[in-house]
Amino acid sequence: MNLNDYQEKIEASKIKRSLDEHISELLELFVDLADLDYISFYKFDYEYNVFDYEYTINNHGEIIEKPENTNKKYKIKIKKNRIIYGYILLNKRIKSKKVLKRLLNKIRNHFHKQRQIEKSLYDADSSFNIYLVYEDNLKNFCENLKSGLKVLFNTDVISTKDITLYSKELKSKDKKHIIIYLVDGQEKIIQDEDIIKNLNELIIVIGPNDHRISMYCGKLGIENYISINEFKAENIKNIVLDTRKQLLTKNRYGNKIIGLTGISGGIGTTTISMNACDLLAKNLPDKNILYIDLTNTKAISNLFLEENPLPEKTIIDLINSSEFNIESNLDNGLIKKTENFYCITGIQKHIDKEYIEKDVFIEKLLEYISSSSDYFNFIVIDLGEADASNLKSTLYDVVNDLWIVTEMSLPHISKLKTFYSLLKRAGLKDKTSFIVNRFDSQNAISISDATSILNMNDDEKKLFNDMKIPNDYQDLGQCWNYCKLATEYAKNSLFVKKLDSILESKGFYKKEEKSETKSSLFSFFKKSK
């Protein structure tokens, strides 16, 4: 937590204490005006969906012990705009008076302010909507479920046959949304496949006990499939409560782990990796990007991402800091570059080079990557110079895509020939692509010469034509002098434009969709377990 955040928390705490006092005074006044002996206040707990007893106040403004249970109890719910804050418990009936109504309205407003402050203090946003998307023959089941969910949750439940009718509400980040599909086959899921892929919400499917439908939902990133024969409303409640502290607005469809390795040092692997991550973060504001520097020489990514010449914590500290957890990880080497772009800087000491090759480190690293995959849509691993070490050979298997950065000089192509042969023998050919950096340099050989040396067929030759980056030494040289990303300092450079087109051609984003998603930023801390 930085100084500004700390000061904001202190100020919010002061406001909350003041509101607590005002609410207590207003309740005391209510006791007097209603001619009561006392009232008890029960606050609604969004975490567990229950009312918790807070205190009892008498007509002298004193906090007294909780009264013993009596048969005569009268409740007044404190709610505003369908949001319940709690209720006050009375020991006798009261007459309706204008002054009491005005006082209750003032109490509601104070509770509303208090809840807003608590959300900023504790990150306790529990407000969400539930959408039930049903097929015609499940309408009765939908209505029964709707009634049950209204009892279980203090929220709005909307039933519809067409989720697109609520696209505007779903794009709003003021509330979280839970979407529950009620299906008797996979036709509805297939029909809404494109919609589901773009819904960054918690999605639950209730359907027949059919393994094929469950597997199909899993491919779309839907983890929660409930058999309709074994369904209980409590199942949904447990799913929501289990994910309350995580980000509900998260769909893992299309998540990828991408590894970049250079055929030699200084070939531009780190520059391409860092700037690619920044482009992904800018163009996909509702996705989360993680950059991991695993170069086995002294890393320089910290100069661009952390802006720190000698970081206090590196990937060694982070991987050894126990389990994946955003809050604790931020103190142990995880760096927040922007709202949705996080990075882990590489080793800074020569002795660490031996440690990252040890089995114990590799095992912890794989566990960390596996855990973080639940929270990051794209993990980009900068593997540094290509070799067949234990660490890198393991990660070549783990990544979904492996991009090899090379130049078109004869020494580089000769080395690439040996390395590419190893990858093909290891069965990694299908996940391998080539980024030809500085392809138009003076000492560059032709594409046909390079593919001839590599003994490539016609399909493989396309790999060299699709991802070529021109020599943009002037713009990149200035960026290096100022330790700035080209995507920030030279947005209109040839390098950035070409890298942008490569990412678009690979299907990571489409330019026409950028303007629609720019404002959909969210707080990542709600993801931490």
Main features:
529 residues, alpha/beta, eight-stranded mixed β-sheet, five-stranded antiparallel β-sheet, 18 strands, 42% helix
DSSP summary: helix tally? 22
**CA-to-CA gap between the ends?**
18 Å
Number of strands: 18
Shape: elongated
Q: List low-confidence stretches.
A: 244-251, 513-529
Alpha-beta classification? alpha/beta
Strand % is 15-25%
- For the report, how would you describe the main beta sheet? 8 strands, mixed
- Give the C-alpha Rg: 29 Å
Strands ordered across the widest β-sheet? 13-14-12-15-11-16-17-18
Query: What's the mean pLDDT score?
Result: 82
Helix amount? 40-55%
How would you summarize the topology of this molecule?
Layout: H1 3-33, E1 38-45, E2 50-58, E3 63-64, E4 74-80, E5 83-90, H2 98-122, E6 128-134, H3 139-152, E7 157-160, H4 167-171, E8 176-182, H5 187-191, H6 193-198, E9 202-207, H7 211-219, E10 224-227, H8 233-242, E11 256-262, H9 269-283, E12 289-293, H10 301-305, H11 315-319, H12 326-329, E13 334-338, E14 341-344, H13 352-355, H14 359-372, E15 378-385, H15 390-398, E16 401-406, H16 410-425, E17 432-437, H17 447-453, H18 458-466, E18 468-469, H19 473-482, H20 486-489, H21 494-505, H22 514-517
Parallel strand pairs: 6-7, 6-8, 8-9, 9-10, 11-15, 11-16, 12-14, 12-15, 16-17, 17-18
Antiparallel strand pairs: 1-2, 1-5, 2-3, 4-5, 13-14
Helix pairs in contact: 1-2, 9-21
Describe the structure.
With 529 residues, the protein is an alpha/beta fold. Helices cover 42% and strands 20% of the residues. The chain contains 22 helices and 18 strands. A hairpin with a 4-residue loop joins strand 1 and strand 2. Helix 1 packs antiparallel against helix 2 and helix 9 crosses helix 21.
